[in-house]
Write a structure and sequence with these properties.
Strand content: 25-35%
Strand order of the largest sheet: 6-5-4-7-8
Helix content: under 10%
Radius of gyration: 17 Å
Structural class: mainly beta
């Protein structure tokens, strides 16, 4: 087996709505979504067009930061995390979280704890990085709070 460090020499644009999401996360530790003016559906992360109405979402709203696990999995196979370039320790939880005030699910890592088992419907909150950089890694993971 050969191991080495490798760079990922590419970037991608997240667009206006993605930039708003990451800027609010970095500057204010707030989670924002976009709201459809016709049906009221709130998308997190924000998106420009409502999937149901095909209307342009022009309003940003704060959601969470707490939420509820809609579904989850426990990953037991290690891999190289593309965000860090390092091997992800296993096992870890990966959940789909509905922030309070949102209608869509947001994917992220969820802490595994013997005291508070991972389950559908569990209440969670984000654990933020000490230094915010305006990336998805500003949220380290979600921890169960009930």
């Amino acid at each position: 087996m050969i191991t080495s460090d490798q760079a990922q020499p590419f970037n991608y644009a997240v667009g206006l709505y993605g930039s708003k999401f990451f800027q609010e996360l970095k500057d204010n530790r707030r989670i924002v979504g976009s709201k459809c003016h016709k049906c009221g559906k709130v998308y997190v992360p924000p998106r420009k067009v409502c999937g149901g109405c095909f209307c342009e979402n022009t309003e940003f709203v704060e959601v969470g930061p707490q939420g509820t696990i809609g579904t989850y999995t426990i990953v037991r196979y290690t891999f190289i995390d593309p965000e860090t370039g390092k091997q992800k320790p296993v096992p870890y939880g990966y959940g789909f979280i509905r922030f309070d005030g949102a209608d869509t699910l947001f994917q992220h890592f969820v802490e595994l704890s013997d005291d508070r088992p991972l389950k559908i419907g569990a209440r969670v909150e984000p654990v933020f990085a000490d230094v915010m950089k305006g990336t998805i890694r500003d949220i380290l993971y979600f921890r169960i709070i009930d």
